[in-house]
């Protein structure tokens, strides 16, 4: 008898365990479905927010473009009003060419100044070399042209260059 009651009690408990396991599986399945639905809702919500933000950005860009067009039209109107009736495309072209010419002249003047500086540096260097050669009594190579005569030629050429470039500026 005790054995039967224990068997009966054991089978009841096994039935409860099986039922609990079934409920647990059902709850896990339901949980998976709910998690999936929640993720989908979150994604939709995020997409809606992104769509709204993109819409706002697009509207702001359109307003900015519209404002720029208004400024451009106003500038164009001002330009048209400020031009005298005697202004022609040819006059404007010659003004542009004159401005470019002035810029090139300014650039040339700067280049001449730079050339004068470089020539002065080279002249100073050649004088230093000549002074060094004379001070240390370096004998020139008989097969090579005289270093001192080369330096004196450099001096004279720089003197001519410097004086002629000063004439141009």
TrEMBL record:
Keywords of the record: Coiled coil
Q: Which residues form a coiled coil?
A: 10-64, 94-128
Per its record, how is this protein called by name? Uncharacterized protein isoform X2
Q: Which organism is it from?
A: Drosophila suzukii (Spotted-wing drosophila fruit fly)
């Amino acid at each position: 008898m005790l054995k039967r009651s224990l068997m009966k009690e054991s089978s009841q408990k096994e039935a409860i365990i099986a039922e609990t396991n079934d409920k647990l599986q059902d709850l896990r399945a339901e949980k998976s479905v709910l998690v999936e639905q929640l993720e989908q809702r979150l994604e939709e919500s995020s997409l809606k927010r992104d769509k709204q933000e993109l819409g706002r950005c697009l509207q702001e860009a359109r307003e900015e473009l519209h404002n720029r067009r208004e400024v451009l039209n106003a500038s164009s109107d001002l330009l048209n009003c400020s031009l005298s009736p005697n202004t022609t495309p040819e006059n404007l072209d010659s003004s542009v060419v004159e401005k470019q010419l002035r810029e090139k002249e300014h650039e040339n003047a700067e280049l001449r100044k730079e050339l004068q500086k470089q020539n002065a540096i080279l002249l100073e260097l050649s004088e230093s070399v000549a002074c060094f050669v004379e001070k240390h009594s370096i004998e020139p190579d008989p097969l090579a042209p005289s270093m001192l005569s080369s330096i004196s030629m450099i001096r004279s050429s720089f003197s001519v260059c410097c004086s002629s470039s000063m004439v141009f500026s």
